[in-house]
Amino acid sequence: MTPQTSRLCSLEFFPPRTPEGIEKLRATRCQLAQLKPAFCSVTFGAGGSTREGTLATVLEFRDGGLEAAPHLSCIGSSRESIREVLNEYRSHGIRHLIALRGDLPSGSADVGDLRYASDLVAFIRQETGDWFHIDVAAYPEYHPQARSPGDDLAAFKRKIDAGANSAITQYFYNPQSYWHFVDACAAQGIDVPIVPGIMPIGSFTKLARFSDACGAEIPRWMRKKLESYGDDTASIRAFGLDVVTELADGLLARGAPGLHFYTLNQAALTTAIWQRLGL
Ligand code: FAD
User: Fold this and answer.
1) pTM over 0.90
2) Staple partner for 163: which of 125, 128, 205, 272, CB 3.0–4.6 Å?
3) 101 CB under 6 A from ligand 1?
4) Active centre residues (catalytic)
5) Domain for residue 1, yes or no?
6) 47: domain CATH number?
7) pLDDT digits (tens, 9 = 90+) for 160-172
8) Does 60 reside within a domain?
9) Nearest-CA residue for atom 14 of ligand 1
């Protein structure tokens, strides 16, 4: 593998809901801190459902010596409640966040005051000026609700024009979709870093469920191979490590500005890929 030293490599976590989850994440954090990530991001549940947990997790990461960035999603929330969260983040000296629309929980009809992530980015800039470095989401295989690839690219551009500084992609296993997206962005004059999201593979059933929900494609050859392992977790993980390491190595070799790992609060697979890449 090519040694990769100057790229921005980060890790994503979710706020744990149980005392056991909190303990487990502490152990994971200690292991992953050794990788010296550029930052750790912590997801935010729609409608503010994890507001306290997200902040508590970010603060705990910071206490552990890591740079930490909370996510903030706007769907189902009022301007006032988002203003409160922004003020809370600011009062703790947090200067980096990931701004998202989020998804409405099923059965919920109230979209709230801000309909799209571009509205949230504009609101954050209006309220807090340049205080935050704002990351937004990007979709090389297009967002599942997008009317067309062109509309989705226009929606992405709106987020950048509203003041986002950089982007992190949904995960993908087909690198061509990423390069095609990056080229399409460049053609639109979008010049912010677009960091590929990397999903390690630990379980085929979980990956298939996630991928169906978020519109990320598992290429047929990978799906067939993963299916063929049945309950043989060791083979699934070994295959996943090879495929994902090769994907990530190719992305960095061709000039991707970094990698953002979806850790799912687990240390082993991310550590193995990171070390194989020589990050
Ligand atoms: P948007 O950019 O607003 O786009 C959503 C859809 O609306 C797209 O189809 C877009 O094409 C369309 N659209 C946008 N603007 C317009 C417009 N003006 N008119 C018509 N259509 C428009 N979810 C969480 O709940 N919490 C998290 O912490 C979280 N973290 C994430 C981190 C990353 C890196 C990624 C990739 C996703 C994350 N998600 C998270 C999931 C995300 O919230 C969902 O994918 C959600 O469905 C879309 O969010 P968005 O910010 O991309 O939305």
Assistant:
1) yes
2) 125
3) yes
4) 12
5) no
6) 3.20.20.220
7) 999 999 999 999 9
8) yes
9) 155
